[in-house]
Amino acid sequence: NAGVTQTPKFRVLKTGQSMTLLCAQDMNHEYMYWYRQDPGMGLRLIHYSVGEGTTAKGEVPDGYNVSRLKKQNFLLGLESAAPSQTSVYFCASRQTVRGDSPLHFGNGTRLTVT
Amino acid sequence: SQKIEQNSEALNIQEGKTATLTCNYTNYSPAYLQWYRQDPGRGPVFLLLIRENEKEKRKERLKVTFDTTLKQSLFHITASQPADSATYLCALHTSGTYKYIFGTGTRLKVLA
């Protein structure tokens, strides 16, 4: 049981390049989330999904797009990377929408945009 | 505006002592509060959850309190060990939303 798996683990992009971060979960969770974590800022929600085929904006969605074509996968895309998107990106999932349903996180993707 | 505050300075304590971490919030009415542990280079891992109508929750050496009047949660680790060294995050969930809001975390270092 792998839980939440993120690929790649590290990536360096030049300004203007695009990339897709992949998140896969094997727990049959309905809800999936993308966060970014920056020093002194904590975890900030980028986008989330409440089920297959649905997505919604979080706190900091600008510059990112997402897709949830399959229940187990949640993709985060950067169409034209900017240095401000240098960060560590975490994907998370949870079983229900109830507040007592904890988040299960992947181990992150460290992205540097030069 | 809504804000969650955790002590941004690292907390250093001696092995065997009790570590106490604080999570303060303003302009929220959380129904649930969770605590997570994050090790360097890893994602956060869920530790404990407390509901708004609960005052205290325990799990082994961990204890969480929740005071909705003070708008504060305290996280205690008793008989601390060097292996407890990590960053600890609190997260609030408000009823009717799909989201958790996280604090910035407090780094704990337990000295042998």
Could you give a short description of this structure?
The complex is a heterodimer of chains A (114) and B (112). Chain A is mainly β and 114 residues long.
Number of strands of chain A: 11
Give the helix tally of chain B: 0
**CATH-scheme architecture of chain B:** Sandwich
Mean pLDDT of chain A: 95
For the record, the CATH class of chain B is Mainly Beta
- CATH-defined fold name of chain B: Immunoglobulin-like
Structural class of chain B: mainly beta
Main beta sheet of chain A, described? 7 strands, mixed
Globally, the shape of chain B reads: globular
Which oligomeric form is depicted? heterodimer
- Please indicate the count of domains of chain B: 1
Q: How would you spell out the order of helices and strands of chain B?
A: EEEEEEEEEEE
Termini distance of chain B? 41 Å
Taken from the alpha-carbon principal axes, the silhouette of chain A is globular
CATH superfamily of chain B, please? Immunoglobulins
Radius of gyration of chain B: 14 Å
Number of helices of chain A: 0
Distance between the termini of chain A: 36 Å
Count of DSSP E strands of chain B?
11
Q: Topology of this protein?
A:
The complex is a heterodimer of chains A (114) and B (112).
Chain A: E1 4-7, E2 10-13, E3 19-25, E4 31-38, E5 42-49, E6 56-57, E7 64-67, E8 73-78, E9 87-94, E10 104-105, E11 109-113
Parallel strand pairs in A: 2-11
Antiparallel strand pairs in A: 1-3, 3-8, 4-5, 4-9, 5-6, 7-8, 9-10, 9-11
Chain B: E1 3-6, E2 11-14, E3 19-26, E4 32-38, E5 45-51, E6 56-59, E7 62-67, E8 72-77, E9 86-93, E10 100-102, E11 106-111
Parallel strand pairs in B: 2-11
Antiparallel strand pairs in B: 1-3, 3-8, 4-5, 4-9, 6-7, 7-8, 9-10, 9-11
Structure write-up:
The complex is a heterodimer of chains A (114) and B (112). Helices cover 0% and strands 51% of the residues of chain A. Chain A is mainly β and 114 residues long. Chain B is mostly beta strands and 112 residues long. In chain B, strands 2, 4, 5, 9, 10 and 11 form a six-stranded mixed β-sheet that branches.
